[in-house]
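Researcher: Let's continue the batch. This sequence belongs to Alanine--tRNA ligase, and it's 239 residues. Same format as the previous ones, please.
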Amino acid sequence: MTAMLFRDDAYLREAPAKVQSITAEGGVVLDATVFYPTGGGQPGDSGWLSWDGQRLPIATAVKGQGDDIVLVAAEPAALPPVGAHVVQELDWDRRHRLMRVHTALHLLSVVIPFGVTGGQISATHGRLDFDMPNAPEDREGIEEDLNEYIGMDARVSDGWITSRELADAPHLIKTMAVKPPMGADDVRLVRIGEEDDWIDLQPCGGTHVARTGEIGALRLGKIEKKGRVNRRVYVHLES
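Model: Same format as before. Here are the structure tokens for Alanine--tRNA ligase:
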């Protein structure tokens, strides 16, 4: 089992850890990690592992067996042995941009209040697919609303509810194609705004910025038709 340090502190850039195992494919499993694994439309983190004067570039992180998180080397190289004490370091610029885009997509789901059928995040832009038959007409209005929420510099926080509580509040689930893990004892909620006056509240396991102002200016990108009742909407970081 890999302890998810990124879940407790999305701004933790480096941390010590111990190598628990090496997978058959050559992936490194640590006892605790700052690397977010690919999931929920968010790419796995990249960065480096250092030990005994050696430095291993990490291309991505993925989910392994059970609760393991596997770090995938960027190139063939010597791996730290099982039991080795390492220092893990994120490619922070990339991670922070992913956090900005992910939080921006939560705001996009507020501005366009339709069911979400898919999504993808990159370090420069993101997109959501909406269950909507017609393209939105007011592009400028969508962009203005997004940047207004960003200008509010609203707080972004998380909390937990039980799967039973979530089942009793189905309006919190915006994603239609992928449902949260209802069988789990607890489900993580990400809130934008204050507890008694929130802008958005939905299940999410990804990493986010602490305040919406940290996203920076957004630009609305293409709006594409994807099937009879699906529209794909892109947003881009301006810098």
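Researcher: Any comment?
Model: Helices lie at 5-8, 92-111, 139-151, 163-167.
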